[in-house]
Write a structure and sequence with these properties.
- The protein has a single domain, classed as NADP-dependent oxidoreductase domain (TIM Barrel, Alpha-Beta Barrel), CATH 3.20.20.100.
- It has nine helices and five strands.
- The chain has a five-stranded parallel sheet with strand order 1-2-3-4-5.
- The protein is globular and about 50 Å long.
- The two termini are 15 Å apart.
Length: 194
């Protein structure tokens, strides 16, 4: 079983959070197996990734344990406002993957984000992280450079005002910069990656 292999490789007795990566294939069977591991204390929390509102609600209604987390693409250009509302309604914590949109759409040079950053003497990355945190979104920014990792932690000494939050909300394009999980060809491709 993949879980036991992970546990052994990590040399741990339990894992804090274990996620299903996509809402395809036998996610219900996988969830039942994860639920058993959760009940046994081998996993402290179980969650999902890329489950958009329709899939998430169906999943919750047909399982005993509600996912603790749903990790979805969330950044200034795809803000997941409706999805976040639904997750809150069901007690699921939204977590952002790709909070910096992987640098797409000129996010690090965006005029609005840059202007806000100058106002607070912060980088665009720090503004984005602060904006997500103020929206109660868990963030896991990816970085390999020490100075960027340190910068990403330095977001708790300022707070964006409502005007700045509103300016960022106006950047929302309401569409993925990566994969459309409603696209039949994408679903076929994802299912073919087994």
């Amino acid at each position: 079983m993949a879980f036991e292999t992970s546990l052994k490789k990590l040399d741990l007795e339990y894992i804090d959070l274990y996620l299903i990566h996509q809402p395809f294939n036998d996610v219900y069977g996988a969830w039942r197996a994860m639920t058993e591991l959760y009940k046994e204390g081998k996993i402290k929390a179980i969650g999902v990734s890329n489950f958009y509102p329709d899939r998430l609600v169906d999943f919750i209604m047909n399982n005993e344990v509600v996912p603790a987390v749903n990790q979805v693409e969330t950044h200034p250009f795809n803000q997941q406002v409706k999805a976040n509302e639904i997750m809150k309604e069901y007690g699921v914590q939204i977590e952002s993957w790709g909070p910096f949109a992987e640098g797409k759409n000129g996010i690090f040079t965006n005029e609005i984000l840059s202007e806000i950053g100058k106002k607070y003497n912060k980088s665009v990355a720090q503004v984005i992280l602060r904006w997500l945190i103020q929206r109660d979104v868990v963030v896991i920014p990816k970085s390999v450079r020490k100075e960027r990792i340190e910068e990403n932690f330095n977001v708790f000494d300022f707070k964006l005002n409502s005007e700045d939050m509103e300016k960022i909300s106006e950047l929302d394009k309401k569409e993925s910069l990566f994969l459309n999980h409603d696209d039949v060809e994408i679903v076929k491709w994802l299912n073919g990656r087994k």
